[in-house]
Amino acid sequence: MTRRWTKEDRRLGMDRPIQRRDFLNGAALAVGGATAGLGLAGAAGAAEATPWPQDRPDYYPPRLQGLRGSHPGAFEAAHALRDGTKPGRVTPLKETYDLIVVGAGISGLSAAWFWRERHPDAKILILDNHDDFGGHAKRNEVVMADGSVRLMNGGTLMIDSPFPYSPQADGLLKALGIDPVALSKRCEDHAAYRQRGLGQGIFFDRETFGEDRLVAGLPDLGEDLPSMEAVDGFIDATPLSATARADLRRLLTTFPDPWPDLTSDAKKDRLSRISYRDYIRDVLKMDPAVVAMFQTFTQGEWAAGIDAVSALDCWGFGMPGFRGLNLAPGPTSRMSFTPRGYCVGASYRFHFPDGNASIARLLVRALVPAALPGSTADDIVTTRCDYSRLDRPDNPVRLRLSATVTAARHRGGDPDTATHVEVDYIRGGRSFSVAGAKVILACYNMIIPYLCPELPEAQKAAMHELVKEPLVYTTVAIRNWTALDRLKVSSVRAPGGYWTSFNLDPVVNIGSYSGVTDPTRPTLLRLTRTPCAPGLSEHDQNRAGRAELLATSFEIFEREIRRELGRILGPGGFDPATDITGIVVNRWPHGYAPERNFLWEPELPEDQLPQTVARKRFGRIAIANSDCGGGAYTDVAIDMAHRAVGDLSA
Ligand SMILES: Cc1cc2nc3c(=O)[nH]c(=O)nc-3n(C[C@H](O)[C@H](O)[C@H](O)COP(=O)(O)OP(=O)(O)OC[C@H]3O[C@@H](n4cnc5c(N)ncnc54)[C@H](O)[C@@H]3O)c2cc1C
Fold first, then answer.
1. Rounded to whole angstroms, how far apart are CA atoms 142 and 152?
2. Which residues' Cβ are closer than 6 Å to ligand 1?
3. Which residue, among 189, 148, 194, 236, has the nearest Cα to 515 in the 3D structure?
4. Which end of the chain is more exposed for a tag (fewer CB within 10 A), N or C?
5. Ligand 1 centroid, distance to 635 Cα (angstroms)
6. Interatomic CA distance for residues 477 and 581, integer angstroms
7. What confidence tier does 224 reach under pLDDT thresholds 50, 70, 90?
8. Hey, where are the domains in the chain?
9. Is residue 317 within 8 Å of 298, Cβ to Cβ?
10. Is the separation of the CB atoms in 642 and 629 below 8 Å?
11. What is the mean pLDDT of the chain?
């Protein structure tokens, strides 16, 4: 049946044939993880006769468009397990491994790498429920209007952590050939957009601020004192009332101390107990429109708005309003301190064109060299992965995709005396089992109690406490970026928008890959949405956001993309109907690993933190994943892998 579009839909271009239409449900038939029938004959020994989708030479998930990230087909089996459905008859495969790793994200891949470092001849199987490896470190590869291929991070943006990388995480990067400092210096062109006069803008929407207006030239809000000229230029161009403008000017350029009688420690203590919203609204007495302007500024870092993040964390994050307090430099619970004065980027920083998918790909290169030939962190960027090589029987390390693990149980005795662990997984609608001498669960902590119901109750309860934070990174291919060039913005925050920020692809020149510096050429935009429910506690906001994400169709995402880009960039000549050539919505209902938030959660000694309790070794099973490191960062995922390998070797 032909779809009937409204006039408004046609104006936006919803009826236009772009690539996402081929993959509306997030996966083409050829790669559908849950596609019934595919691979059934591959079970129990007949695998070579009818290959699984990933074994076919044309299998290439990075190019898929539509709903990606946690794509349809990836999570249904896990949700059914959570809801009490028992998997059907399990077919035992005659496969035994020294180690089975559940989860092919950075943590699972690193665990396999650290294991091979200790046991070079080990036979390892890595299982993941997605049709691609990398977990959050996802690669989007987009064929542009002119036939060129551009890369974007579908998840993990860059090497960047609020704390320096540990010797283990740093050592792994070095072993993979990644020198973030040297790469950043050689490959990143931070000045490319600035030299054209482009900067950050704020889109004031009529629903929140009374008028649609994009204002370019938002000054740097860090502790560095912005120039008065820049501040005045920006504030005078906003549609804010005279009172709100005066308040914003006061926030950015004057430095009162609301608590002159308190010591720095006492001020910090007070700031740690109120949200940034309450601090600027109730203590600094900012106009509601100023509060609304900043509401979403923290979403990128913590997947929550300023109502759910402490003022102290926002001081650490470089938000304005603290200079007059003269706080003593020093780390907060979530941020370390840099000489610049605030804490983003306390580690080295480097953005590969596909984000940290390049780290995942370098790990796969090290584990299954035939799949990703080459030798450097430069050539990995453009090397095409041969997925058909990932799960060959004679590989020492096998990586099996679209395989959702449903059980990991000790066999041959209780956890202390067992001889091995049996791991069940669902693939192509059927259940299989494999055996491993040891198992590392590098999947989400929330699913582990369902895989190992015999875990101690306290450990399961601790795992359930770790509520992941949902977010969406969307890659949009556009014919050119002349509208952004005219409007003088390379990135935009839209505090009242469905998408609360977007930016032009950062310019990185690495190996044979070059950034786009000519505005008439096609490029990629990255849009971010963090579904929150202000007013609730952070975890409840996250639960509500996850439910929202899973209930949102691709069509809704697409319409919101077209509407918002049209509204914001239309005055620069952007037409969403003709200028958008491709869309990849990377949906992450299980996104950031949760950090301790003292606005709602009590401070606890290290050994009582849920992540510490959750990560205890259980017989032949160890737990990795960033969840049990209590931080949503790549280095945490690597550190947890290293610890899990150590746990099993102890
Ligand atoms: C949108 C986004 C942006 C980010 N940006 C940054 C950044 O710029 N810098 C940074 O340092 N960190 C960033 N992070 C955090 C970082 O990506 C993570 O900390 C890290 O990649 C997590 O790796 P992981 O292996 O622990 O988990 P994951 O990447 O989640 O991998 C776990 C894998 O296990 C799979 N799995 C789960 N259950 C099962 C099962 N039952 N059977 C089989 N497989 C299963 C999952 O689907 C997943 O593929 C970002 C995260 C997100 C979501």
1. 8
2. 78, 102-108, 127-130, 135-137, 155-158, 160-161, 404-405, 442-444, 447, 471, 473, 588, 591-593, 625-626, 632-634, 636-637
3. 189
4. N
5. 12
6. 5
7. low
8. 246-325
9. yes
10. no
11. 91
